[in-house]
Design a protein that fits this description.
By secondary structure, this protein is of the alpha+beta class. The protein is built from three helices and eight strands; from the N terminus they run ββαββαββαββ. The protein has a domain of about 110 residues: 2-Layer Sandwich (Alpha-Beta Plaits), CATH 3.30.70. A four-stranded antiparallel beta sheet has the order 3-6-2-7, covered by helices on one side. A two-stranded antiparallel ribbon has the order 1-8. Strands 4-5 form a two-stranded antiparallel ribbon.
Amino acid sequence: MVKRQFAIKSRSIITKSSILVPTINRKGDLMFYEICIYEAKIEKQAEIEELMKEVREFYLSQPGVIDVRYIKRTHRQKDFNAVKAGEAPIELTRYMGKVTYVLFWQAENKEAQAALYPLAFEKFYKRWNRCLTTMPKIILGEDIADLRIDRDAL
């Protein structure tokens, strides 16, 4: 059975039947996502991590922003066979020339995401640039589907 449900903020609604639906905001638009991959200078780790906390707080205070997450790459897989065998990832012990961070944020729609850019650039761009080794890789897009699991069937 497939049901269409509306997402409110980032809370998911779980039902007894398995469903595959796009995440939709209250207006009926698809949620909009941005993923950025940053390569930061090793000596700027403390500065960029403090900046990320400030940026996250700022983003979350803006209309239309649902969620903001920053992730620091702290582990790696040994190899593909280790992945297939279900082995735990290996903790990184050093960084070679750069530290990788990932931003994941969710907006109600692409207009809300676009409206935030001028404000964020004005407020944070110069400080970001001082910390990065290269321009970030930016991935933008809409949600394809949100898989909800039938927990009773497990």
